[in-house]
Amino acid sequence: MQPSIYIAGIDEAGRGPLAGDVFAAAVILDPQCEITGLNDSKKLSAAKREALAQRIKEKALAYAIAHVSPQVIDEINILQATLQAMREAFLQLPIPAQRALIDGNKIPENMPVPCEAVIKGDQKHPCIMAASILAKTARDEHIMQAHQQYPEYGFDQHKGYGTALHLENLKKYGPSPIHRFSFAPVKQSIKK
Protein backbone atom coordinates (compact mmCIF):
# COMPACT_ATOMS: atom_id res chain seq x y z
CA MET A 1 0.00 0.00 0.00
CA GLN A 2 1.38 3.39 -0.99
CA PRO A 3 1.43 6.24 1.55
CA SER A 4 -1.35 8.80 1.18
CA ILE A 5 1.14 11.67 1.42
CA TYR A 6 4.68 11.71 0.08
CA ILE A 7 7.22 13.53 2.27
CA ALA A 8 10.58 14.48 0.80
CA GLY A 9 13.68 14.89 2.95
CA ILE A 10 16.17 17.46 1.64
CA ASP A 11 19.79 18.09 2.61
CA GLU A 12 22.97 19.54 1.15
CA ALA A 13 26.68 18.80 1.02
CA GLY A 14 29.56 21.10 0.31
CA ARG A 15 28.69 24.49 1.77
CA GLY A 16 32.03 24.95 3.52
CA PRO A 17 34.68 23.90 0.96
CA LEU A 18 36.74 26.40 -1.03
CA ALA A 19 36.22 24.49 -4.28
CA GLY A 20 33.66 22.47 -6.19
CA ASP A 21 29.91 22.52 -6.59
CA VAL A 22 27.44 22.54 -3.72
CA PHE A 23 25.12 19.52 -3.89
CA ALA A 24 21.62 18.83 -2.58
CA ALA A 25 19.45 15.74 -2.61
CA ALA A 26 15.74 15.13 -2.11
CA VAL A 27 14.51 11.68 -1.10
CA ILE A 28 11.07 10.13 -0.62
CA LEU A 29 11.44 6.94 1.40
CA ASP A 30 9.07 4.00 1.22
CA PRO A 31 7.53 3.57 4.72
CA GLN A 32 7.05 -0.16 3.90
CA CYS A 33 10.75 -0.64 3.22
CA GLU A 34 13.04 0.44 6.05
CA ILE A 35 16.70 1.08 5.24
CA THR A 36 18.80 0.14 8.27
CA GLY A 37 21.91 2.09 9.15
CA LEU A 38 20.73 5.52 8.03
CA ASN A 39 22.44 8.39 9.84
CA ASP A 40 23.83 11.86 9.28
CA SER A 41 26.37 11.38 6.45
CA LYS A 42 29.08 13.09 8.53
CA LYS A 43 28.81 10.30 11.11
CA LEU A 44 29.41 7.50 8.59
CA SER A 45 32.60 6.21 7.01
CA ALA A 46 33.02 6.70 3.25
CA ALA A 47 32.52 2.96 2.66
CA LYS A 48 29.32 2.89 4.75
CA ARG A 49 28.00 6.00 2.94
CA GLU A 50 28.65 4.39 -0.45
CA ALA A 51 26.86 1.17 0.55
CA LEU A 52 23.90 3.11 1.97
CA ALA A 53 23.71 5.39 -1.08
CA GLN A 54 23.32 2.29 -3.25
CA ARG A 55 20.58 0.93 -0.96
CA ILE A 56 18.76 4.29 -0.90
CA LYS A 57 18.78 4.45 -4.71
CA GLU A 58 17.36 0.93 -4.89
CA LYS A 59 14.72 1.20 -2.14
CA ALA A 60 13.55 4.84 -2.05
CA LEU A 61 10.27 5.65 -3.77
CA ALA A 62 12.06 8.57 -5.43
CA TYR A 63 15.26 10.61 -5.23
CA ALA A 64 16.92 13.44 -7.10
CA ILE A 65 20.28 15.17 -6.83
CA ALA A 66 21.10 18.70 -7.98
CA HIS A 67 24.22 20.84 -7.83
CA VAL A 68 25.24 24.45 -8.33
CA SER A 69 28.62 25.50 -9.76
CA PRO A 70 31.31 27.62 -8.09
CA GLN A 71 30.61 30.37 -10.66
CA VAL A 72 26.98 30.60 -9.53
CA ILE A 73 28.07 30.36 -5.87
CA ASP A 74 30.34 33.38 -6.47
CA GLU A 75 27.49 35.23 -8.16
CA ILE A 76 24.65 34.68 -5.68
CA ASN A 77 26.54 33.54 -2.47
CA ILE A 78 26.77 30.09 -0.90
CA LEU A 79 23.51 30.27 1.07
CA GLN A 80 21.45 31.19 -2.00
CA ALA A 81 23.28 28.58 -4.10
CA THR A 82 22.54 25.92 -1.47
CA LEU A 83 18.85 26.84 -1.37
CA GLN A 84 18.76 26.81 -5.19
CA ALA A 85 20.27 23.29 -5.28
CA MET A 86 17.73 22.13 -2.66
CA ARG A 87 14.80 23.52 -4.65
CA GLU A 88 16.12 22.02 -7.91
CA ALA A 89 16.55 18.58 -6.30
CA PHE A 90 12.98 18.74 -4.96
CA LEU A 91 11.57 19.81 -8.35
CA GLN A 92 13.41 16.97 -10.12
CA LEU A 93 11.77 14.25 -8.01
CA PRO A 94 10.04 11.80 -10.38
CA ILE A 95 7.15 11.48 -7.88
CA PRO A 96 5.65 14.74 -6.59
CA ALA A 97 5.86 15.13 -2.81
CA GLN A 98 3.14 16.90 -0.84
CA ARG A 99 5.50 18.08 1.90
CA ALA A 100 9.22 18.63 2.48
CA LEU A 101 11.45 18.39 5.54
CA ILE A 102 14.60 20.45 5.04
CA ASP A 103 17.77 20.14 7.10
CA GLY A 104 18.76 23.45 8.70
CA ASN A 105 16.95 26.67 9.50
CA LYS A 106 16.19 28.03 6.01
CA ILE A 107 13.62 27.08 3.38
CA PRO A 108 14.19 27.73 -0.33
CA GLU A 109 11.87 30.34 -1.84
CA ASN A 110 8.99 29.38 -4.14
CA MET A 111 8.68 25.82 -2.92
CA PRO A 112 5.42 24.41 -4.29
CA VAL A 113 4.53 22.49 -1.10
CA PRO A 114 4.48 23.14 2.66
CA CYS A 115 8.02 22.87 4.04
CA GLU A 116 9.49 22.59 7.49
CA ALA A 117 13.07 23.55 8.32
CA VAL A 118 14.48 21.08 10.85
CA ILE A 119 17.67 21.99 12.71
CA LYS A 120 19.84 18.84 12.88
CA GLY A 121 17.22 17.14 10.74
CA ASP A 122 19.91 14.81 9.39
CA GLN A 123 20.00 13.29 12.88
CA LYS A 124 16.20 13.14 13.36
CA HIS A 125 14.40 12.14 10.15
CA PRO A 126 15.36 9.10 8.04
CA CYS A 127 14.35 10.88 4.79
CA ILE A 128 16.75 13.76 5.57
CA MET A 129 19.48 11.27 6.58
CA ALA A 130 19.03 9.58 3.20
CA ALA A 131 19.23 12.94 1.40
CA SER A 132 22.36 13.79 3.40
CA ILE A 133 24.01 10.54 2.25
CA LEU A 134 23.10 10.99 -1.42
CA ALA A 135 24.25 14.63 -1.48
CA LYS A 136 27.56 13.76 0.21
CA THR A 137 28.37 10.74 -1.98
CA ALA A 138 27.50 12.68 -5.16
CA ARG A 139 29.72 15.57 -4.06
CA ASP A 140 32.58 13.24 -3.17
CA GLU A 141 32.36 11.67 -6.64
CA HIS A 142 32.38 15.16 -8.20
CA ILE A 143 35.45 16.20 -6.20
CA MET A 144 37.31 12.98 -7.11
CA GLN A 145 36.72 13.82 -10.79
CA ALA A 146 38.11 17.30 -10.08
CA HIS A 147 41.15 15.60 -8.54
CA GLN A 148 41.79 13.79 -11.85
CA GLN A 149 41.76 17.16 -13.60
CA TYR A 150 43.70 19.16 -10.98
CA PRO A 151 45.80 16.63 -9.00
CA GLU A 152 48.19 19.32 -7.72
CA TYR A 153 45.59 20.55 -5.20
CA GLY A 154 45.16 17.21 -3.40
CA PHE A 155 41.36 17.23 -3.61
CA ASP A 156 41.38 13.46 -2.96
CA GLN A 157 42.69 14.19 0.54
CA HIS A 158 40.70 17.25 1.67
CA LYS A 159 37.65 17.24 -0.67
CA GLY A 160 38.04 20.98 -1.22
CA TYR A 161 37.91 22.00 2.45
CA GLY A 162 40.37 24.62 3.71
CA THR A 163 42.97 22.30 5.22
CA ALA A 164 46.60 23.34 5.67
CA LEU A 165 47.54 21.23 2.61
CA HIS A 166 44.84 22.83 0.47
CA LEU A 167 45.80 26.37 1.53
CA GLU A 168 49.46 25.61 0.85
CA ASN A 169 48.66 24.29 -2.66
CA LEU A 170 46.36 27.24 -3.30
CA LYS A 171 49.24 29.59 -2.49
CA LYS A 172 51.62 27.60 -4.65
CA TYR A 173 49.42 27.11 -7.75
CA GLY A 174 46.79 29.85 -7.45
CA PRO A 175 43.09 29.00 -7.81
CA SER A 176 41.77 26.45 -10.32
CA PRO A 177 38.59 27.01 -12.38
CA ILE A 178 36.60 25.06 -9.76
CA HIS A 179 37.64 27.25 -6.83
CA ARG A 180 35.11 29.62 -5.26
CA PHE A 181 36.65 33.02 -5.91
CA SER A 182 34.29 34.78 -3.48
CA PHE A 183 35.66 32.76 -0.53
CA ALA A 184 38.32 34.70 1.47
CA PRO A 185 41.20 32.15 1.30
CA VAL A 186 40.79 31.88 -2.48
CA LYS A 187 40.60 35.69 -2.85
CA GLN A 188 43.76 36.06 -0.78
CA SER A 189 45.62 33.53 -2.93
CA ILE A 190 45.12 35.80 -5.97
CA LYS A 191 46.49 38.95 -4.36
CA LYS A 192 50.10 39.58 -5.30
Descriptors for this entry?
single chain, 192 residues, Nucleotidyltransferase, domain 5, 5-stranded mixed beta sheet, 7 helices, 5 strands, 16% strand, Ribonuclease HII
Record the SSE blueprint:
Layout: E1 7-13, E2 22-28, H1 46-59, E3 62-68, H2 70-76, H3 78-91, E4 99-103, E5 115-118, H4 126-149, H5 155-158, H6 164-173, H7 184-190
Summarize the structure in words.
The chain has one domain (7-150): Ribonuclease H-like superfamily/Ribonuclease H (Nucleotidyltransferase, domain 5, 2-Layer Sandwich). The protein has a five-stranded mixed β-sheet, sandwiched between helices. It contains seven helices and five strands, in the order ββαβααββαααα. A hairpin with an 8-residue loop joins strand 1 (7-13) and strand 2. The protein has helices spanning 46-59, 70-76, 78-91, 126-149, 155-158, 164-173, 184-190, and strands spanning 7-13, 22-28, 62-68, 99-103, 115-118. The protein is globular, with a radius of gyration of 17 Å. It starts with 6 loop residues before the first strand and ends with a helix. One of its GO terms (cellular component) is ribonuclease H2 complex. Endonuclease that specifically degrades the RNA of RNA-DNA hybrids. It is found in: Cytoplasm.
Q: Short summary of the structure?
A:
Helix content is 42%, strand content 16%. With 192 residues, it is α/β, with parallel strands linked by helices.
CATH architecture heading: 2-Layer Sandwich
Name the strands of the widest sheet in spatial order.
3-2-1-4-5
Shape: globular
CATH superfamily heading: Ribonuclease H-like superfamily/Ribonuclease H
CA-CA gap between termini = 64 Å
Beta-strand content bin: 15-25%
Helix content, binned percent: 40-55%
Could you give a short account of the major beta sheet?
5 strands, mixed
Any idea how many domains?
1
Structural class: alpha/beta
**The first-level CATH class name:** Alpha Beta
Mean pLDDT, all residues: 95
Whole-angstrom Rg: 17 Å
- Could you tell me the number of beta strands? 5
